[in-house]
Structures are given as C-alpha cells and as structure tokens.
Amino acid sequence: MDGLRRQLGTRDLVLMNVAAILSPRWMAFAAASGPSSIGLWVAASIFFFLPNALCITALSSSFPQEGGLYAWSKRAFGDVHGFVTGWSYWMSNVFYFPSLALATAGMGLYIFGTRYAHLEQSNAYNLTASLALLFVAILVSVIGWRAGKWVQNLGGLGNWLPIVFLLLIAVLVLIRFGPANPIRLGEIFPRFSELGLILVFSKLCFAFAGFELAPIVSEEIVEPTKTLPRAIFISAASIAFVYIVGTLALLVALPTAETSIVTGINQAVTKAGARVGLDFLGAPTALLMAVAGLGGLAAWFAGSGRLLFVAGIDRYLPPAFSRIHPRWNTPAVALLTQGAVAVLLTFLATVGTSVQNAYLFFADLTTILAFIPYLYMFASCIALRGETRGPGSIPIPGGSTGNVLVNVSGFLMTALAIVLSCIPPPEETRKLLRAVLLVGGAAGFLAVGFGLYALASRRAQRA
Fold it and tell me: What is the pLDDT of residues 448-463, one digit of tens each?
C-alpha cells in the first residue's frame, strides 16, 4: 500500500508479541484461582495456543497482506464475512483498551510501595491514570513505528524482569518457609465440578491471544513471509513457559486469598519480598510492569487501528479513514477515531461500578468479541489449506489431515471459551442481567457490523 513503510524486523515483532500477549495480570488471575490453574494453562497451551500459532504461521506466510485476519476471512468467505471479522476484532480491542489501561494503572501504584495501594479501588485515580496511558498510546501510534516500536520493545523487555524477581522470591520463600499454598499433584488438575474454576479457562485462552496482531501490519514488516513465522516461533515457547512458571511462583509466594486478580505479582514481590529481605524489588517491579502495560497498550492500539484503515481503503468506511499522514506515514484519522472511542469507553468503565467488576465485565465482553474472528480464522485456514502450500508458505504439518485436526482443535476451544465467557461467575449476584448484557451486547455489535456492511454495499451500488 502506498505511503506505508517497512520498518519492523524480527526483534521488533518478537518484542511486539511479548508486549501484546505476555501479561503478568493473567498470571495473577490464574494464581488467584488456585493450583488447578496450572493444569488449565497446560490445556490452553496444547489445545488453543499451539493451533493458534500454527494457523497464523500458515496464513501469514501465505497471505502477507495488511489487515491480517480481516484479509484472510475475506479471501476465504467473501467480503461480508471479512468485514464482520475485522469489525468484531476491532470492537474487541476498543473494549480491551480500558481493561488493560485499568490493570496498568493499578500496577503502577506499587512504584511507591504499598503507600498508595488503596487507590486501586478509586474510580478517580483509575480514570485519570488510564486516560493518561491512553493518550501516550495514541500519540506514539500516530507518530509511527519509528517511535512507537520502541515503546512496544521496552514493554516487551519490561515483562521479563518482574518474572525473574518473582521467581527469585518464590525460591527463597520455598526454601525458608515452604509454599504459601499447598501444591500437590492431584490439585494441579482441575475438577470439572467447580464452575468458578472452569470459567477461568476462557480467560487463559484469551491470555494467549495476540499472534494475529502483527500480521495486521504485514505491509509495514521487512520480508513478512520470513519474519512473521520466525517471530511467532521464538515468542510462542517463551510465552507459554513464563505463564506456567510465573503462576507456579506466585502460588508459592502468596496465598490465593490475598492475591488480587490485577496486581497479584506486585503484591507478591512487595509482601513476600519483605519476608525474605527483598522488599526493595517492589518499586522497580512496579515500574517495569507499568512500562510493560503501556507497551502492550501501544501495540494493540497501533495494530487494531489498521483495521479501520483497511476498511476505509475497501470503502466500507468513509475515505478519510484510508488517508496516510504526509509526515508520519500512519493512518492518523483511523487511529484518532479509535482513540476517541477508547477514551469514551474508559470513562464509562470507571463510573458507577467497582473497578474489579468493570475489569471482569470488559474482559468477558472482550473475550467474546475477540474470539468470533478466531472462529473465522481457524475456518479460513481450513478453507484455504490448498493455498497455504505454495512457494514461501509454511503449512501446518501433516498435510490436509493435519491442517483440519489442528484448526478444528483451535475452533472448538475458541467456541468453548466463548460459551464459558457468557456464564456468570458463582459470586455474581445478578447472573441473568450479566448474561443478557454480555450476549446481547456481543450480538448487538455484530448486528451493527452487518448493518454497516449493508449500508456501504448500497452506497457502492448507487455510485
């Protein structure tokens, strides 16, 4: 596409994947559910994460167009399904921005120790801090990858050191005091009779989502057919390993009853660190995690904004969305429009409800909307399997049979995660209302997507 520059290499994409996918808050979320979350991590890795990585590798190496899963669904099933895929994925991201900004704002409080930890439940603080983080993400995205990729790279690097600190503290706690939670082999495997624990599975699948982000900016990547698969393979194994080991370390360091689903690692480094004389690690851990959160926010923001840009090129949205900024070579109108929507949703997320309830609701709605495009993506890989074996392509091993088995596994796990996200947790007092809001909200946004496509098609016919 004219005006876009190829600036992203393997290192940039690896760190972009790490910044977008690896998030300490998912380890905290898992650890708060107890030792059985380890078994859920393993299941999500095998039946969702691996098929996801193989599917995206095959598609991105075969069809390296700007738009990623939007372009793949369009090629496999036609224009309307491509548009709805992109629309649903974009909507999931604008709902994801508030939850990610809220989590990052909470983690940043521990830069000053526990002195301001009480502000985690302050709507005023969370609104102010979240909006500040969003404005930074908007700014670096509009300026372009030359500046934006360094924010994401720092975010990717910022994810690693806090985990190293946590592992060190967990080892010392284990040696001196024993684990904070009893961890026996039988408890690692989840019991399907525990609804609350099974519902965690959908969130852990979502924690592995994000490899589809880089292919959306394929035409800004140096040699995308080689660079994308290489970056996926390098980052996939490390992300799965860190999620599992990090959750285990958190279970050793901090009792589950004391673990916040958002700032659990900050708590562990601060409280457990004090028990072993490493409490001074609390402030740098919080700072690194805040940088990592900002890097992840910038990565998701820049990537998803390209979907509005591609939809503008295809005339599904007004032509202004397809304009490239003459100085920064970015789709500035698309990014600024997305920013305005994200700011509005962040405001709504922090008014009139508790921060934890807002976080969980947005996480559930994000999971549903994000995984609808995943259904399309896995189905597209099956439908296009004959085209993923050409020169330069990296097909799924096992031929046509292997392709179908891998993508059916990913499709079924995605469908299961969507269903689980619609089921209210046991502690929810207004279960029916929550379920109606989630299902009705997701259905409503899909209907809007189909409606926008119909209007655009009608305009094109008249023209």
Answer: 888 888 888 887 777 6
